[in-house]
Amino acid sequence: MAGRTVTRADLCEAVYQQVGLSRTESAQLVEMVLKEIADCLARGETVKLSSFGSFVVREKGERVGRNPKTGEEVPIEPRRVMVFKPSSILKHRINGTVGDGLDED
Question: Under the GO molecular function aspect, what terms does this record hold?
């Protein structure tokens, strides 16, 4: 069921083919966009791409975990995690269904 994996090189090639920039300029554009998204997330900002979805950074508090081998309780440090929430349009597109055209994110 798994399809092929799309890489940075694939994205650069798609920009090259569809936008008409040189391969070097296409690669630079893709890198700039990905860097900006990563920088925003590192600052704790939400990145919302209309009709695609949102990348959200969430804070997870400290909690107690358990070592599965020994059963010993171990504290799990607080951390930040990134979550992707797809838009309803993307969900409908993936599932091949017709949506109402309204983006809920």
Answer: DNA binding; structural constituent of chromatin
Residue span of the structural domain in which 28 resides: 7-43
- Is 20 inside any structural domain? yes
Is 17 a domain residue? Answer: yes
Number of other residues whose CB lies within 10 A of the CB of residue 27: 18
Amino acid at 90: L
Compute the chain's Rg from CA coordinates.
Answer: 19
Report pLDDT digits (tens) over 20-69: 899 999 999 999 999 999 999 999 999 999 999 999 999 999 999 999 99
Residue 92 CA neighbour count, 13 Å, CB half = 12
CA distance 16 to 12: 6
- Assess if residue 36 is contained within a domain: yes
Residue 3: is its pLDDT beyond 90? no
Total tally of structural domains belonging to the chain = 1
> Is 25 domain-assigned?
yes
**Confidence (pTM):** 0.76
